[in-house]
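Running this now, will post back.
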Amino acid sequence: MSRPFLAAASAVLLLSAFPSGAMGQTGPDRGVDVASEAQAAASIVDAFHAALEAGETEAALSLMAEDAMVFEEGGAERSRAEYASHHLQADAAYAAASESTMARRVGRTSGDLAWIMSEGRTVGQAGNSATARLTVETMVLAREPDGWRIKHIHWSSRATPAA
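Update: finished.
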């Protein structure tokens, strides 16, 4: 999939995820609004996070397409193999040393594409420093012959405001 196509598809998917006037509203289950047809894709996102937290990096990688792209902190890893050789181990270590809570999630599908967007908070350790971050995540998944696979991850976070 070409980068311009991926960017355009992501923009269309993101814009269509929120019905008119829905920004800032929450769904019936504490901010969770995942359409029934997107539930299986959302379970892949949850399994990916559970695998990272457990340190099961091979299991996490098995949920990603070979050509998956990961955007984080202004950087890009352009394949599953590149992610595995760069940030996977650090992401697993951070997931194991922190606790994440989800505040909101929206999930939709269109044909063989799904997008799951989550907002939350993570508290934990990064090296010797305590961290508290507000987080946002977008995952785009494609339905492949063996099930949903993560094609794109975009993570962003910022420090929580001082209390």
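Residues 39-54 form the longest helix (16 residues). More later if anyone needs it.
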